[in-house]
Amino acid sequence: MASSLSASVSSLQSSLGLLDSSISTLDAGISDFPRLCKVLQTTRHFELLPEPTLREAQQSLLDEITPSIAHLLSLATNHVEKLSRREQALKAKCELQEGRMSSNESRQASNRAQSSALRDRQGGGSAAKAAELRRLVQKKERLKYAVERLELQGRQRERQLRKSMAVQ
């Protein structure tokens, strides 16, 4: 029995040696396991989305932005039209002022010519007639100026009416 016991002990020692060897091999194999896990771990840098989801997001964004863009375009158009009308009004005002200046210059020249003609005609004539004539000349000039102003205002209103009809 001693021999069978000694065979059992020796077999057990051999098994323990083999187990130690296996543990050493396994330990050497898995000692680098945490680093390998880290290296082999995949990191997603970009998320892939299905095309329908992408289209829905684009449509949602478009639905959200479109009213704002339309509103801003409307505001810009209205402002441009307002500036255009103001420009036309300023041009008409400029024309009116130019007309006033030219009529004023022609009036002054006409007045000088008429007063020198009056002086020549009067010779020793009555001062009352000269004053009446001057008053009538001034009235004529005022009326001429008023007619020119009304004509220019009429042209300006015509332009504004045409512009407002074109906008509609």
3D structure, described in words:
It comes from Aspergillus wentii DTO 134E9. It holds the Pfam family DASH_Spc19. Keywords: Centromere, Chromosome, Cytoplasm, Cytoskeleton, Kinetochore, Nucleus. With 168 residues, the chain is an all-alpha fold. Helices cover 89% and strands 0% of the residues. It contains four helices and no strands. It has helices at 2-30, 33-40, 51-122, 127-167. The radius of gyration is 54 Å and the shape is rod-shaped. The model has no long low-confidence stretch (mean pLDDT 83).
State Rg. 54 Å
Helices and strands: which structural class? Answer: mainly alpha
Major β-sheet profile:
none
Give the strand tally. 0
Strand residue percentage = under 5%
Number of distinct helices: 4
Residue runs with pLDDT of under 50 for 5 or more positions: none
